[in-house]
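Hey, resending since the last one bounced:
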Amino acid sequence: MAEDIALGNIKKVEEKKIMKYTHCLRLNMTKCVPPHDKLIREIALRVYKVPRKVLDKLFPNEDQRSFIPKAQ
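The structure tokens again:
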């Protein structure tokens, strides 16, 4: 999903929600827990370098602080 955000395939919150549930369907699991928004946001930001402005639009209720601890 983070890759789809980076490629511009997901542009709206509704599209993101649909993709989360189609992820479970692709795995052929009816009782699947979709990936958490914090994880998707973090991967999109750190791996795919998606601008924060785009992520803030797709994840309006998520905390912007990273949940990954910084190395010391």
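The CA atoms of residues 39 and 67 lie 9 Å apart.

Sorry for the duplicate.
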